[in-house]
Design brief:
- The complex is a heterodimer of chains A (about 210) and B (about 325).
- By secondary structure, chain A is mainly α.
- Chain A has eleven helices and no strands.
- In chain A, helix 7 runs antiparallel to helix 9 and helix 10 (about 170-175) runs antiparallel to helix 11.
- Chain A starts with a helix and ends in a 5-residue tail after the last helix.
- Chain B has about 325 residues and is an alpha/beta fold.
- Chain B has two domains: about 30-160 and about 270-325, Periplasmic binding protein-like II (D-Maltodextrin-Binding Protein, domain 2), CATH 3.40.190; about 160-255, 3-Layer(aba) Sandwich (D-Maltodextrin-Binding Protein, domain 2).
- In chain B, the strands form three sheets. A five-stranded mixed β-sheet of chain B has the order 7-6-8-5-9.
- In chain B, helix 2 (about 45-60) crosses helix 15.
- The longest helix of chain B is centred in the first third of the chain and has 22 residues, at about 1-25.
- Chain B starts with a helix and ends in a 6-residue tail after the last helix.
- The relative contact order of chain B is 0.16.
- Mean pLDDT of chain B is about 85; it is low at about 1-30 and about 115-130.
- Classes of the chains: A mainly alpha (about 210), B alpha/beta (about 325).
- The interface of A and B includes residues 82 and 176 of A.
């Protein structure tokens, strides 16, 4: 309880800095999630339709998940230098595996008989895709965005190693001073951000779920 | 105090000695449960020093184990206090501020007003003439012995102080050679520093308090410590938070700004060792002191540069080469 009080006191002492860091952290994460979704959801769809190599490609993507995010952050530093852009690139790539894997699984799990029925009632391929296939896969795709957002919000901490002031500032200080107040001040905010993203995307996921007939 | 310590030591040593001999341990390591574990923090100079300690201990025929790269001061200190490691290199100023929690200003103000309680030696007269090094050393040495039962061996002439550095070009164009002068223009500048810099009393908070002016608005580019200088070379920052013995300072032809108001204490480096280990192995102190007192600013920045510069040498190789060249091992 005392520790919690210290953390609240910490926030009260420097509201401007806390808000500024939390905002940069959030903005960086959301942009990475948006760009990641725009790239990797279509890629997942392509893999799902690619009968010959899709499952092998997805296997390769899944194995890429073992690359630690801290390595990824530094991997782009020699190419892109310091600052916002390299951090964004790294975080976007980090979102790739969960987005691709979930999109692939979501598309593949749709019952072939349902798609066949859609074609049977005279829908053209585009209609089958946009009116039946994609809506049925959407809840799983959004679940992928949820796990991607957890990875991104957590890893945005590491952007503080390549020139972006995120909540990582508190984590790094907490580690170097071994100060739990700093660690919790940063950690709790990151948890709060992740939970908010979870709740919002969870709501979206329920909204797009096609009610079972 | 000496007497009490001796008595305690004797009481502890007796049963340990008995069991050790019983199991057939080498009496030289009887106070140790296993190998002597050498620790270090997570930057080049610490790796080199940690390797030097390992090599000297091995040269003494002792069994060693390395636990280098322990992160920051607090982690290394806790590891030492809990006995997970037996020694690591520490800086006097860091110990004063970060471990003992003393304020540099208070300590030095006390120093100028009174005779030092810490040491009776007349050469320890404080402040004037750059004897701060010895004064601060005496304070941390005595406090460590008393609070943690840890021994500070002799300290290096090298002072790895924190410092602000700029490129020679910038210094010549702007005429800035001191931190006071930098403070006037700092609002328009970016400083490359580890991410904890804005939160630290021996970092930006101290600069703001002591030098005020522009340090309220200086932009901080947080980077991984190994990338500090790269940001300066890439033109992302004009100022870098440097350490006095960083090889990059001469390697990249940087200018270290004078800390004219004295924010930072002296940072001379010394091995901090479990006192029991030294009692059990009386040879260690003399051998370590011989090495440490040879480490000047020039020596350390040269050794650091061999690792951090284009050579990219291995810290262990650099340490071995230096010790062999100077006859500290293998003699």
């Amino acid at each position: 309880m005392d520790t919690l009080r210290e953390v609240l006191e910490f926030y009260r002492e420097r509201p401007d800095e806390v808000l500024e860091l939390a905002w940069i952290h959030t903005e960086l994460s959301l942009i990475a999630l948006a760009i990641g979704s725009a790239i990797f959801v279509p890629l997942g769809i392509l893999f799902a339709r690619w009968t010959a190599g899709g499952s092998a490609a997805v296997g390769v993507v899944a194995s890429l998940r073992v690359i630690p995010s801290i390595a990824l952050i530094f991997l782009f530093y020699p190419l892109l230098g310091f600052g916002y852009q390299p951090a964004l690139v790294a975080l976007t790539i980090l979102a790739g595996p969960p987005l691709i894997l979930n999109t692939y699984a979501g598309m593949r799990q749709v019952d072939a008989a349902v798609l066949e029925a859609a074609r049977g009632v005279g829908m053209n391929p585009a209609q089958v895709f946009f009116k039946v296939h994609l809506p049925l896969a959407l809840p799983v795709i959004i679940a992928g965005m949820r796990s991607a957002s957890v990875e991104i919000f957590a890893s945005a901490t590491l952007a503080s190693f390549i020139g972006v002031r995120t909540l990582g500032q508190y984590i790094v200080t907490g580690i170097s001073l071994l100060d739990t107040t700093y660690l919790l001040a940063g950690g709790l905010l990151i948890v709060a951000l992740v939970l908010s993203a979870e709740i919002i995307l969870g709501g979206v996921e329920r909204l797009v779920r096609v009610p079972a007939a | 105090m000496l007497n009490r310590r001796t008595v305690v030591k004797g009481a502890l040593a007796a049963p340990i000695a008995a069991t050790s001999v019983g199991i057939g341990f080498n009496p030289a390591v009887m106070a140790q449960d296993g190998p002597i574990v050498v620790g270090s923090k997570d930057f080049t100079e610490q790796f080199i020093l940690g390797n030097m300690y390992l090599l000297v201990l091995e040269d003494l025929g002792l069994e060693t184990d390395a636990s280098l790269n322990l992160g920051g001061t607090q982690i290394a200190h806790q590891a030492l206090e809990s006995g997970d490691i037996s020694l690591y290199p520490e800086y006097t100023g860091t110990a004063l501020v970060e471990v003992l929690g003393l304020s540099v200003e208070e300590v030095l103000a006390e120093a100028s007003s009174a005779t030092p309680v810490a040491d009776a030696s007349p050469s320890a007269s404080p402040v004037a003439g750059g004897t701060n090094a010895e004064y601060v050393y005496n304070i941390v040495r005595d406090a460590y012995q008393e609070q943690f039962n840890l021994t500070w061996l002799a300290y290096s002439p090298a002072n790895n102080t924190q410092a602000l550095a700029v490129s020679r070009e910038y210094s010549e164009e702007s005429g800035v050679t001191t931190i006071s002068q930098l403070a006037e223009v700092a609002a328009d500048l970016t400083i490359s520093a580890p991410a904890d810099f804005p939160e630290r009393e021996d970092g930006l908070l101290g600069l703001q308090r002591m030098y005020a002016a522009g340090f309220e608005d200086i932009e901080v580019l947080p980077v991984q410590p190994g990338l500090k200088y790269q940001a300066l070379l890439d033109g992302e920052a004009e100022v870098v938070l440097a350490f006095g013995t960083d090889g990059q300072i001469s390697g990249y032809d940087l200018v270290v700004l004078e800390d004219d108001l004295g924010l930072w204490p002296p940072y001379n480096v010394a091995p901090v060792v479990q006192t029991d280990l030294l009692d059990a192995n009386p040879d260690i102190a003399a051998r370590f002191n011989e090495v440490t007192t040879s480490l000047t600013d020039a020596v350390l920045s040269d050794l650091n540069w061999q690792v951090d510069g284009d050579d990219g040498a291995d810290p262990a190789d650099v340490a071995r080469q230096y010790l062999e060249d100077n006859g500290f091992i293998g003699g």
